[in-house]
Amino acid sequence: MSEDSSNVVVLGAQVDISMAGMLYQQLSSALDADGTAILDGTDTERVDTAGVQLLLAFRRQAEMQGRDWEWRNRPQCLAEAESLLGTETA
């Protein structure tokens, strides 16, 4: 696995509508960088519906581009939000 700062997206404490624009840019850049895109949910404590939608869109875009990606510390709050919404980002 190739890892550098250009392909690691640190999600931060909140993955919600207030962070969607910034995270969208970071996720897009990670897909444009060489190597595996890595989502780091180490510090993530809250994910809202907009956050789940953003992560679903990221997964779909990665699949369409044939890009590899992976989680580093997938947050439990994401699993809980997905369960409530009936979705799964991976």
Automatic annotation (TrEMBL):
Pfam families: STAS_2 (PF13466). SUPFAM superfamilies: SpoIIaa-like (SSF52091). PANTHER family: BLR2341 PROTEIN (PTHR35849). It comes from the Bacteria. The lineage of its organism: Bacteria, Pseudomonadati, Pseudomonadota, Gammaproteobacteria, Oceanospirillales. InterPro entries: MlaB-like_STAS (IPR058548), MlaB_ABC_Transporter (IPR052746), STAS_dom (IPR002645), STAS_dom_sf (IPR036513). This is STAS domain-containing protein. It comes from Halovibrio salipaludis. Residues 1-66 form the STAS domain. Gene3D superfamilies: STAS domain.
